[in-house]
Structure formats: C-alpha cells, structure tokens
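I had to read the description of the data format several times before I understood it. In essence, backbone conformation is discretised, so a fold becomes a row of integers matching the chain in length. I therefore recommend that a typical entry be quoted early in the introduction. For illustration, here is how one protein appears when written out as sequence plus structure tokens.

***
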Amino acid sequence: MNRIALPLLLALATTGCVMPDQLAQIQTDVAQVQQSLAAVSKTQTELSAKVADLQSKVGSGEMVQRSDLADLSNRLDEVVRQSTATADKVDQVNVRVDRLSQDVQAARESTKRLTPPVVPVPVPGEAPPPAASPGTAVTNPNALYTSAYADFSKGNYALAIQGFEEYAERFPDADLADNAMYWIGECHFSQGAFPDAIAAFDRLLAAHPDSEKAAAANLKKGLAFLEQNDVRRAIVQLRYVVSEYPQTDEAKIARDKLTSLGATT
C-alpha cells in the first residue's frame, strides 16, 4: 500500500500557494484514510481471534461447525474489501497532492515570465507556422486516472476500464500505471467476469512484476479461481501469496482463506 505524501503536503502548505479549502479537503481525506486503516486493523484482529479459536478446536479434536467456517469466510471477504478500498484512498490522496505540487510549480514558473513572449514577424513569401491542432493536446494523467476511479466507485465499470486502459497505454511509465492495470482487474472482478479479471491481473504482473499491487493482484487471482469453484487452482494461488509475500496483509488473508478451505499453507 502506498504511503500518503504527508511531507510534500506540509511543504505545499508552507509555500502559501495552496488554497486553505484545498488543504482542508486533503487533511479530511487523510483523516478518513486513517479511520479506514483503523477499521481494517480491528477487523484483522477479530479475524485472528476467530482463526485461533478454530485452530484450537481442530487441535483438540472438537467438531468445527459449518457456521463457524461461513463466518470466517465472511470476515475474510470483509478484510479484502476494506483493504482494497483503503489502498485506493491512499492512491487518490497521493494523486491530489501530486497535482497540487504541479500547480504550485506552474505558478512559480509563471512568475518568472516577466517579459511577454517574442512574436515572430512573418517573412514575405514564407508560409506562417502551422497552428497547433486541438486534437494534439496531451491529456492530464492525474485527471484521467481520477476520472477512471470515479467511474469505478460509481459502478460504471465499462467506463472505468476504458479510462484505466487509456491511462496505462498512454502513460506506461507513470507512477500509477501499475495501479491502473490493477483496477482494470478489479473492475472485471466486480462484474463477475473472473476469467477477464485473472487475465488483467496477469498483464499487470507481467508488465510490473515488482509493483506494490503485485501481492494484491496475486491474492485476487486466487479469489477469482475460488469464485469459479476452481478450488485446486485457488489453493495453489493462495499458497503462492503466502510463500512470495509472507509479511504482507495479503499473505495473512491468504492463510486465513486456506484455513477456511481446510487446506494447509
């Protein structure tokens, strides 16, 4: 999960170039992220207690009730949902801070331009320079990403996929290119198009194997296999998450999911 760019936020605030309402809104967003993190931590604590209780019952030979396994599965799904939502809130705050940083830099540059631009004098017999075509303007990557995620949040998955696809294609080296590819998979997953979701996560992992979203993408692949009742491949995938990302929240979720399936890690 990306960290919020708080040092940059403070630096922008001290320049005097950030409007008070902009700063207040970002501070509110940061507070919401902190609340979301606290909620995820609480749910994980409850989940750990539930897993410990089930392990104790299994160890003592006591029969595990099906309702206990169902409750564990529901708690796992809740942790996944909360973690995913919180991760993107962090991404969105960082995007907004980056955009403010760019605005501040642009304002600084504009103050340096104290003299008007030199307008070239047409030379008789020479054609004037061609005017810029309106269609050649470069889309703001931050605006494109934010718009795509807004569509995702509203459930407009087709539009979100289109926006994220455009972002990943036009700005493949941007900091959020891997995030955009991840959310394409999430869009498909949310629509129940699990094969498409798996394919999208595979594209992300092939293009950005070291992405911060790699653990989450591998976990969601396992959950997608499970949604298709492909339990064997789901177990293999979840074990891979535990093996490759042992210290992550995704690994913890994978372990708990494996426990609910009656499989070892």
Notes: The two ends are 24 Å apart (CA to CA). The domain at 1-108 is CATH 1.10.287 (Helix Hairpins). Residues 12-20, 103-115, 131-138 have pLDDT under 50 and may be disordered. The chain is about 70% helix and 0% strand.
